[in-house]
Amino acid sequence: MASVAEVRAAIEAAIQQVTESQVAISAANEKLSEAQMSLASAWDGSGHQATQAAYASLQQATVDLENCYTATLAAVEQAQTYTATL
């Protein structure tokens, strides 16, 4: 059985990995926003269904990333709460 110190260290390592993932999620979200702006400029005035679908897909991807980020925040909070009880 792992000692309390080992458990704390493992949790802190996991939290660090989540924090690194949060940075990557934020960067991906920024890139998606840039892509949306680029596509909006390129397709300005186009009413083609494919352009609207592509833009909607990028919007959904942005929402999904935001949900992912929120989930990581909750995970870190729960891990920290558990660590505080050790």
From TrEMBL:
Name of the protein: Uncharacterized protein YukE
Gene3D superfamilies (UniProt xref): ESAT-6-like
Species: Catenuloplanes atrovinosus
InterPro entries: ESAT-6-like_sf
Top-level taxon: Bacteria
